[in-house]
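Encode chain A's predicted structure.
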Amino acid sequence: MATLPNIIRRVTGPKPRSFQVISNVPSLRRLRRDAMLKDESVGFVPTMGALHPGHLALIRQAVQENTHVYVSIYVNPTQFGVSEDFDSYPNTLNDDLEQLRSLTARFWNDDSVGQITAVFTPTTSHMYPGLKPSSEIDGQGSFVTITPLSSVLEGASRPVFFRGVATVCMKLFNIVQPDNVYFGQKDVQQTYVIRRMVDDFHLNTRVRVVPTVRDIDGLAKSSRNVYLGRRRRKVATVLVRALRAVRAAFLDAHTERDVLLGAAHKVFEDEMQRQEALPPHARCMFEVDYLSLVDPLRFTELENVEPKHGAILSGAIKMLPIEKPQEDEDLGTGGRNLPVRLIDNLRLEQITSMLQRTRSSSSDTP
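Encoded structure for chain A:
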């Protein structure tokens, strides 16, 4: 893949103070054609709204590398299963637009970066102009499937998820025709699916992956965190604590799958025991969906991690509804006390070099 240029071609004429909100395809295509004729690059950040600092980090990266940044806000129904939380997914368009306006104002006086120039807010009839989109596994419609990547881990737990993601991204990429697209490392399997789709279908765009943004206690930023409420929010860090326990074992020179994942299971088991010892009005229960240790190139499960190649460690848990909510207890946005599924990952190849430097330093010590 080609490296990104160090110099961005700036907007011809005055830099726009704000962005256009566009809901239909022809208007966005006209804007994109105008940028193309001026040889001005476009970076694209697809979102489902409910923007948080992780999304804003993607946009900040995009304005560093493109003349224009387009952001889409669209909750895509085809990536939700029939029993999943599509109907309750946060709809915060006005707040999202206000966040983007605030961010745009910060870029306006900085000539070293690009600018957010369009926010695309299509309706489902725009995105799926033919058949009504289906969330059934064997549903009818025009879909993009990327197998076997889409069939494991998240795909095993959510069978239509990556079919919906790949389909809506193919549509968005065709509409926007971006030079660069931006995704977060938190959704690591999604980045592999998108990269495979871009390569297999010869799409003329570059996939950029931005590091996960976390709260101070390590919890990965996610639009679904607003559903947790205070009690579940405290326990939800068990996932990142488990992943970090694997990292500690890896830094201690362990490479065997059973040993590495065993460190994570120990964290889960200890936290589960602590919660089970509490009375129902005080505890917070969860379920482990999966733990995975895969090759960073093939995305296949590993029995042993080769330090020079590293691995991707990922996991998913489901925070269960509070058993006995207290009066006026914070149950998260909407107060519906719904199950909340959380995912996270660490790239062990990022710490392989740390391990190698540690070993090298030790060997050099007299």
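The CA atoms of residues 79 and 164 lie 4 Å apart.
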